[in-house]
Amino acid sequence: MTKPLLQITGLTTELGDPAQPARVVDGLTLDIRSGETFALLGESGCGKSMTALSLMRLLPPSGRITAGSVQLGGTELLSLTEAEMRQVRGGQMAMIFQEPQTSLNPVLTVGTQIGEAVRLHQGDARQRLGAERALELLRAVGIPDPEQRLNEYPHQLSGGMKQRVMIAMALAGNPRLLIADEPTTALDVTIQAQVLRLLKAVQSENGLAVLLITHDLGVVAETAERLAVMYAGQIVETAPVAEFFVQPLHPYSRHLLESLPEASKRHGRLAVIAGRVPSLDQVFQGCRFVDRCPAAIARCRLEVPEWRMLDEGRGVRCHLAESVGVEVPDRPAVPVVIAAAHVASDESASETAQVPLLTMRGLQVHFPIHQGVLRRVVGYVRAVDGISLDLYAGRTLALVGESGCGKTTAGKGLLQLVPPTGGSVRYRGQELIGLSHRRLRPFRKDLQIVFQDPFASMNPRMLVGDIIGEGLQALKIAPKRAERMRRVAELLELVGLDPESASRYPHEFSGGQRQRLCIARALAVEPRIIICDEPTSALDVSVQAQILNLLKDLQERLGLAYLFITHDLSVVSYLAHEVAVMYLGRVVEHGQVDEILDDPRHPYTRALLSAVPVVDPERRRRIIQLEGDMPSPRHPPSGCHFHPRCPEAIEVCRHHYPVETRLGSTRRVCCHCVDVGASARTADSKDRA
């Protein structure tokens, strides 16, 4: 065995008042070898990101490392001066942060920021070479139209593109260790697969070690060699990845796996872990998981479990897992408590489902491109280029596709948050396009949105209670403060947060907790339609299960309609009734969820499904690697927009956009090769059999 590149021993990090500190990392010990991907799992608030910040020595002002050792390539990082540590950051070790919007400088172009990292860590001050390397990195991480993106600012990029820019910046200094804090959270599945392949390629070439902090168990199963599960500041289990997914030993690990959404659970509820991660500013008497563990015994409350190293490189911190193969007794987890609400009768729900709440017909959102001092219009970015969809009460329409295909813009255009340039949006028969802000105001109560970036969508100077209650006050639903705060407390409980959180600011929460705050804000005014823009992308699997159960229960009780914008197809398989697949501003396939996921007819849909990482190796598909990048919506290709990347393209695809083909009452496909694709799929399935 080679000596580990990174050795962490007894690392302890505290926050807050030294007299009563919150010990967010408590005696952490692990090692990572060159060329290895090591995954760190756990819920929001367990200390994963704080572990990464401790390794980088980028703690907040109230944070301090009080014990332990961190050695990188034999160098003790905790003894370095700040000036010496600056040379290590970026050059020897780099970090991809969880929220790219807050990590990128809003007043500098993308090219300037990447070029700065290149020149700082590679010792080349020449501007031209820095720009060339920046362009090369943007191509490597799959940014479409990279020459154009170099001169753009972060606010001009989609969430997925911003995350890829962060990955490019992290790789600019050719580090030996890459700490990736949720690096694929904002990425669609095809770009996620591309980025993971990129990291693997860099690993094989340079021996790069990766500490992968993630809640995506599918990504862990397909990319990592070893993992550690973290809970309340401590490691509770370590294992080789293959053995972990066959038999997790700690009850917490088992519940994480049981929380995964999938199609087989669609008509039931996902398993959730009762309660929440305990506060870390206390002295624990026994096991830290005891209050949430359905298998806890009396000993768990009285004795702190010792760390045990088992066979095959496995370790566990649990009284109930003395050895590999032990069966931990289980009881059903406590379900999420949902506030009582009016339940529509089956008859009225059936009648409602026949008439859409909202219809979109030919919706277009084109952004003009200005040039010169006179700001002349020289072209348009066709972000949304004529989509037609219906939203029904009590049903979920999932809108999927790669980052930059127009999903988020379609949702904003539906709500008139960006002005549509064409088409029609009708809510209960009322045309919304063209209404003034004053006339749109009465509809705001019924139409709400949960934004993709939770931190950027909340005012950092407002308390959480005021943020959630703002809509109640603005729409005069609860004009009195006492009434608003009472409703805010109920909403915080509803999304699994302590009601006392109302008196804190957004920056005091983890990424997953901030997303739950945004969901609470959207639910505050009791809407009829919610646009969910990646609402679970920042959540760990246990909280994701809680939120998905919550969304499903609210839908069944209140008849809510969801437009669910996501790249997580496992969530789609569990929650959605219908699926629409977007590519370059247009819907290329639409149908019932079973039809789309079991029998995709468009080549693009098949490529998306093949790239989804899954835990079960028997269910993995051969990844269809799409050639090239998604074209820019400023210059869409002639003919079928997908033909430059399509493995099944024929001559007609290059010259004519396909006419929509109907395959039944709800199934629609825009593809010249839809029948050819079906034949090829049949032949391929026979070959596999």
Automatic annotation (TrEMBL):
Entry-linked PANTHER family: DIPEPTIDE TRANSPORT ATP-BINDING PROTEIN DPPD (PTHR43297:SF2), OLIGOPEPTIDE TRANSPORT ATP-BINDING PROTEIN APPD (PTHR43297)
Taxonomic lineage: Bacteria, Pseudomonadati, Pseudomonadota, Gammaproteobacteria, Chromatiales
Subcellular locations according to the entry: Cell inner membrane
Protein name as annotated: ABC-type dipeptide transporter
Membrane topology: Peripheral membrane protein
GO biological process: peptide transport; transmembrane transport
Catalytic reaction(s) noted: a dipeptide(out) + ATP + H2O = a dipeptide(in) + ADP + phosphate + H(+)
Domain ABC transporter: 6-257, 369-609
Organism: Allochromatium palmeri
Gene3D superfamilies (UniProt xref): P-loop containing nucleotide triphosphate hydrolases
A GO CC term assigned to this protein in UniProt: plasma membrane
